Amino acid sequence: MTNENILDVTLIEPRLKHPTIIDTFDNLNDGESFIIHNDHDPKPLYYQLLNDYGNTFGWDYLEEGPEWWKVKISKPDFNKNLHSYSSKIDNITSNTESEIKSNEFVLNVTLLEPKLKHPTIFTYFDNINEGESFIILNDHDPKPLYFQLLGERGEIFTWEYLEEGPEWWKIRIYKRISGEGEETLGQIAAKDLHKAQIFKKYGLDFCCGGKKTVKQACEEKGLDLRKIEDELNQASGSVTSRPLPYNEWNIGFLADYIVNTHHSYLRKNLPDIRQYAEKVMNVHGSNHPELYAVQKIVEQLYKELTEHLVKEENDIFPMIKEIANNKKISTIEDPINILVHEHESVGKMLGDLRKFTANYTLPDDACASYSLLYRMLNELEDDTLLHIHLENNILFPKAIDLFKSNN
Questions:
Q1: Which residues of the chain have pLDDT under 70?
Q2: Which of 171, 179, 283, 301 has its Cβ near the most Cβ atoms within 10 Å?
Q3: Where are the alpha helices (DSSP H) in 96-142?
Q4: How would you classify residue 179: left for phi > 0, otherwise alpha for psi between -120 and 50, otherwise beta?
Q5: Is the peptide bond before 66 cis (omega within 30 degrees of 0)?
């Protein structure tokens, strides 16, 4: 022990304690160690080392208070232990040979220098082709790597646990083929309606254009895919009020809900919106000619939506209820396709309204009626987008699937 490097932590400025100890550890050669002296248990340092280096260091208490704590921190001799590590790997591989493809590379992370672990794994991932994979072996759960890979590369990989301790963790990392396994905007919104607000924020159509992936929609609009994926990931972990479980409802019940909620909203508010659009155009149209386009679109919306509601209530929804009751009907796909096409027309008109009103930005000379019209149009868009989403992405696909299984 006389040759052991001893570091008296109490003599170091507090803000420099951990950096100094970690720097000392980094400068050790394989198989070397040093001892720290401290006037309290340095357990927080242990957890920092564990987080940064995994189980690649030795931590041995030589003295545990009450006045002094002495801890020996050592760096393993990887070359010395290479044979034993390799024999363990051979054993693991032979026991689970069927899980590993013949051409699949196996990376033993424990044999890497700590600071090179994540960079090396990233390099392997970046250098494999889409549709290829490799295996990592580690002596602890590498979950921090998963989050780093997700944060820096996005959802372009799958992470499959083949073995989960207690001695070894074995994970297959697979690079997805472009478009493979990616959910559409509509599917994402159907699972978590909170994320629909992010789509709306960036003008991504999750209703009529709901069959596109996030990547496709971002490319079309020239948006930053990584930024939007980050916001979607954050929304997944956020604690907010739970939306109604539309996706869990019986399709007959969902159809009734749409009629009682969204059809009723349109019947109540469309006449008022129509009236205010004409009134505001007559008063302010000379200074704001875009109001003529707004009034024309509102008239067209009123006509198309009124006819659309009747078609749904008198024809399509009764057919859906028959399907829900396991009754056989002759067709459902063609009538639904007609409704979806009409939804696309409505979605375009709502987009045009937002364009002509500059996202419902009021001019300086706007009166109370002007303000009310824009607020009502904004609410109309919110309600109608949800209305179309429930039909296009939940009700109609489920009805078609059930129709096919019944026939």
A1: 1-4, 54-56, 77-103, 155, 178-182, 190-194, 207-210, 233-243
A2: 301
A3: 117-127
A4: left
A5: yes
- What is the per-residue pLDDT for 286? 93
Domain regions of the chain by residue span: 5-74, 78-175, 185-237, 246-406
Place of tokens 């300086």: 364
Topology match between the domains 5-74 and 78-175: yes
Please name which of 301, 305, 304, 298 lies closest in space to residue 274, comparing C-alpha atoms: 298
pLDDT at residue 89, as a whole number: 39
State how far the Cα of 297 lies from the Cα of 303, in Å rounded to an integer.
10
Which fold does the domain 78-175 belong to in CATH?
A: Translation Initiation Factor IF3 (3.30.110)
Per the CB < 8 A criterion, the answer to whether 308 and 383 are in contact is no
From the number of C-beta atoms within 10 Å of its C-beta (0-12, 13-18, 19+), residue 23 rates as exposed
> For 221-245, what is each residue's pLDDT tens digit?
788 887 887 777 666 544 444 557 7
**Which of 165, 170, 169 lies closest to 104, judged by CA?**
170
pLDDT at 5: 86
Closest-CA residue to 39 (of 74, 66, 5, 3):
66
Distances (CA, A) of 301 to 135, 205, 274, 337, 342: 56, 18, 9, 19, 11
Beta bridge partners of 74: 33, 58
HSE on the CB side for 147, CA within 13 Å?
A: 7
| pLDDT at residue 218, as a whole number | 81
* 37 phi/psi in degrees, rounded to 5: -110, 135
Radius of gyration of the chain (CA): 31
Edge-to-edge strand list for the sheet holding 133-138? 105-108, 133-138, 169-175, 157-164
8 A C-beta contact, residue 303 and residue 320: no
Q: Tell me the fold of 5-74.
A: Translation Initiation Factor IF3 (3.30.110)
| Number of Cα atoms under 13 Å in the Cβ half of residue 121 | 27
| CA pair distance 401, 394, nearest whole angstrom | 11
pLDDT, residue 210, reads: 60
pLDDT at residue 147 in the model: 78
Write the Ramachandran bin of 326: left for phi over 0, alpha for psi from -120 to 50, otherwise beta. Answer: left
